[in-house]
User: Fold Cytidine deaminase from Shewanella algidipiscicola.
Amino acid sequence: MQDRFIHCIAQLPSTLADKLVPLLNDDFAGHLDAQQIADLVKATQLPVNELLLALLPVAAALAKPPISEFYVGAIAKGKSGDIYMGGNIELDGEALFHSIHAEQSAISHAWLSGESVIEDIIVNESPCGHCRQFMNELVAGQHIKIHLPNQATQPLSHYLPYAFGPGDLNITQPLLSKQQHELALDSTDPMVIEALDHASLSYAPYTGSYAAVVLETRDGQTFCGRYAENAAFNPSMLPMQMALSAMVRHNRDFSEIKRAVLVESGQGKISLVGASMDALHASAPVELEHIVLDPSQ
Ligand SMILES: [Zn+2]
Assistant:
């Protein structure tokens, strides 16, 4: 079991802890599939929603909050029945708006894993306004059920009444809906091709600035992030943040980054290069490779 889970395991019911310890091996990055959840329900005799609340200390152990030291854990449950955990991340020494909220980490985890609908969000603290707005960008966002410890389960519409969302800006394919944008680039660099693939799956209906980041660690592993915009703009999740949060879920240290690539559309209204460089430089002494796609394509 990874060291970061030692403390949280002690907080879990023993029947759950016994079953969970073998799952929290070196490869664990916050994903449990529907069968593993069914096995845990059977072993613990807990109803699934109580089981997911009981797993929140595990999600919170994925957090990396050097500024607040306030550990938030969130779990996104997809329509597939799989669950995706995430914790909050703060970039040491960098402006607070670079922070990643636990719900964003969990939702982006689900998106990168191919989920197209999130039905439930389980979180150990009441979602902040930023996260309520971020969740409202999702497919059927108003119907997502929010589960909190010691609170009745309520849909997002209860937490975000009179919501402003993608529909108000005439967006009919919200975040997580299947969409693929035609982006092309002549490159044989596997990292660039990987970033291009993710950029084509990114969500930028307000600017057209489709973008993705790939980070490579010294051992050759890659971690990707896609751009995810928001109708209220500020709660958008930048691809660098999404890639950094993937690294944290995999228990990788930012000092392991050896290469970083940002690919972005040349036809968009904005560029993410400045914000991405700031977040990268706060994390690792690596220069960002910036590739803007030919605007004629
Ligand atoms: Zn939040």
User: Anything to note?
Assistant: The domain at 3-169 is CATH 3.40.140.10 (Cytidine Deaminase; domain 2). Strands lie at 31-32, 73-78, 83-87, 118-123, 145-147, 154-155, 211-217, 222-226, 257-264, 288-292. The radius of gyration is 19 Å.
